[in-house]
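Summary for the steering committee. One of the milestones for this cycle was to obtain a three-dimensional model of the protein with JEH bound, which we needed before selecting residues for the alanine scan. The sequence and ligand used are listed below.
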Amino acid sequence: MKIDLVSIFPQYFTALDLSLLGKAAETGLVHARVHDLRQWTHDRHRSVDDTPYGGGAGMVMMPQVWGEALDTLIHDAPHSNDSDRSEAVRTVLAIPTPSGSPLTQAKAADLATADHLIIACGRYEGIDQRIGDHYRERGLEVYEYSIGDYVLNGGEVAALVLVEAVTRLLEGFMGNPDSIVEESHSDGLLEYPAYTKPRSWRELDVPAVLLSGDHAAIARWRRNRALERTAKRRPDMIASLALDTLDSADRMTLARVGVLLTDTGTHHLEIRAARAEEAALIARLAARTFPDACPPELPAEAMNVFITDHLNEDTFAAHIANPEDQIFVAIVDGELSGYCLVRTGETAIDADMIRPGKIDAGDAYLSKCYVDTPWRGTGLAGALLERSIEYAAAHTQAPRIVVGTHRSNFRAQKFYRKHGFVKKGRRIFTVAGIPNHDVVLVRDLTTFAASEKD
Ligand code: JEH
């Protein structure tokens, strides 16, 4: 590839001699030349700029000088007339400008197939618009680009950026072709964090999972960190992720950092402790989601009695006021969309649930996670559950947390098992006098730290 750089500050490009580009030049892969724009001036003062038509601050680079410079460089293009080459020569005129289209990796990869790249670096307020227009009309590929939303003093830095982004993609350029291959199957996320020796540096330890040799756990950990930092630093990238590239673990990781993805787009999630004034809202949510957790044979009348007696505003107001209880609410785009209740203390575990050594009076009780229909499968329930478990482990004395769910509700059982619960017993859960057969699942809270590696 031949590269011509034109600027009134050609010294800027001495950096190119230091970079890897030097090596590529030695091997003949890249041939870069730097030109002082002023060599194409004719006046005593070697002027390149003039005042803008229409008024306004600053100066604009005049087209005559640029025209002469670019005509020259286009015409002594390399191998443009080589008789033994049948393919057309692809020449691109690249013009850095704050109003250009954003330079992307895809564009860099595209430009890496060009034969001749001419980069016209402006200063002042930029180059007269007719330069780009004229060469485009003459059939040249003109690429007006920007390297980002900040203001530079001229195009030189943006030219260096383009040269580096393009030349490192040239066939046979890098010492290590694997790293290019790895880049190309990027999954639309930012990179996970990297660590090297020593294992401990200034009290900071390399995450234990990376030393574990457990390749699946390492892959999961890296993916979670990549998702988290992408959500935090590049929400725009999260918004353009295809839903079908995310598994349920991905969705939960995103939910835990406040992002829900659905086919209607991305939504903001906040999980926090319930407030006293939310009792009525939580009761309404409980009332409309409770029937989904009931077996189909349970009469609607029984459900309604249970809802009226137990899932009312007063009950939830009492839970919120009780220091032994903790309700977490999920607020999606400002609306209450889920809740989870953790209970501790004397009355948390019903007498008929106790299995000495397996389920004891001192255990915490998780009143099921309730999530509104549009948010099922988004990871919201998992995020609520993990938040509740985290709370129970850190803020209560309970050695275990216990949950009951109807024995026919396999979806719920699978969900709890995924979160570290194991089946430890049964109970009868009475809904308006009607006995229901529940399974009781338990999760250990004492080994909480170990499971945190995900
Ligand atoms: C800057 C080429 C040639 C300074 C200001 C203005 C912004 C609003 N990403 C990039 N930033 N800056 C450049 C670039 C690229 N690529 C760049 C250049 C030239 C590239 C001359 N300059 C200096 C320059 C006018 N302001 C532009 N506006 C959006 C903040 C205000 C006006 C033009 C040229």
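Key point for the committee: Residues 96-98, 100, 122-123, 125-126, 146-148, 150-155, 158 surround JEH (CB under 6 Å).
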